[in-house]
Specification:
32% of the residues lie in helices and 29% in strands. The protein has 265 residues and is an alpha+beta fold. It folds into two domains: 113 residues, Aminopeptidase (3-Layer(aba) Sandwich); 91 residues, no CATH class. The strands form three sheets. The protein has an eight-stranded mixed beta sheet with strand order 1-2-3-4-5-6-8-7, with helices on both faces.
């Protein structure tokens, strides 16, 4: 195996996939994205692809542990950037730092290709992933609304190693709208963002929403029950869902303790 067929990131070494790796790659992708399918309620985009085409048209890098396939990194070099099309790790290997190693490997590949911009995407409802990428320097670039889901596109400038720029209120609102649109599709209820009730704090924005039926009729029986306000974090665009059983400040303090915010500021 030549040096060009290896990609190093820290202690991890990835190798280029070959045609005979296709069955194992397919099995890994299905296993890795199973949880996301449950959370999204639809098939994750990487599972809708023809992997024979992916193997032909993109770069597929594999991480092996004990001779078994543990992770896969699928990259698409484009004019001006490198797209991380998919990062997947075997659920049995998760929590051991493999995801971080795959992400670092993608950035190393971008540098090798002379790209200083890396882009990726994930489901807007997968707030744990939006936050995870945010903690690794990726910023929300835009929210794309498709017929059956909302997709969060993120970007990282490798040449900028300073503190990431916080998202704007407009970007936060687009993230909130994407979340609300996903709720509409899942529950068959028309919802409306209550823009005038938005609360801005140092850590982000708190967005409220209500059923359009209630806003039109004013009838309490049409009001939403159990739908909690959401917080969009200023630092990384991550969504934090609050609750309705206790006062809002309780949930803000709970998130603040977990994220290091000042809930009173």
């Amino acid at each position: 195996m030549t040096q060009s067929e290896l990609l190093r990131a820290g202690d991890s070494v990835l190798e280029r996939a070959h045609s005979d790796d296709l069955p194992a790659l397919l099995a890994l992708q299905r296993s890795a994205y199973a949880r996301n399918k449950t959370l999204l309620g639809v098939e994750p985009l990487p599972l809708l692809a023809d992997y024979a085409d992916i193997m032909r048209d993109m770069e597929v890098w594999l991480a092996r542990r004990d001779k078994s396939l543990a992770g896969a990194l699928i990259l698409q070099p484009r004019d001006g950037d490198l797209l991380i099309w998919s990062i997947a790790s075997d659920p049995a290997a998760q929590g051991g730092g493999l995801g971080r190693a795959l992400l670092a490997a993608a950035e190393e590949r971008a540098r090798r290709l002379g790209r200083d911009v890396v882009r990726l995407y994930t489901g807007t409802l997968l707030t744990h992933l939006v936050g995870w990428y945010g903690r690794h320097g990726y910023q929300v670039e835009r929210i794309e609304t498709l017929s059956d889901r909302s997709v969060t596109h993120m970007i990282k400038h490798l040449s900028r190693q300073s503190t990431p720029i916080a998202i704007s209120k407009g970007e936060a609102m687009r993230i909130a709208l994407g979340y609300i649109e996903q709720l509409q599709r899942e529950n068959g209820i028309e919802l409306e963002l209550l823009e005038g009730e938005t609360i801005e704090r140092s850590f982000g924005w708190i967005f409220f929403y209500q059923s359009k039926c209630y806003l039109q009729s004013g009838c309490l029986s049409d009001a939403l029950a159990g739908y909690a306000p959401i917080v969009v974090a200023r630092a990384d665009g991550r969504i934090h869902v609050t609750g309705t059983a206790r006062p809002l400040e309780y949930y803000l303090e709970e998130s603040a303790a977990a994220e290091g915010w000042n809930s009173q500021d």
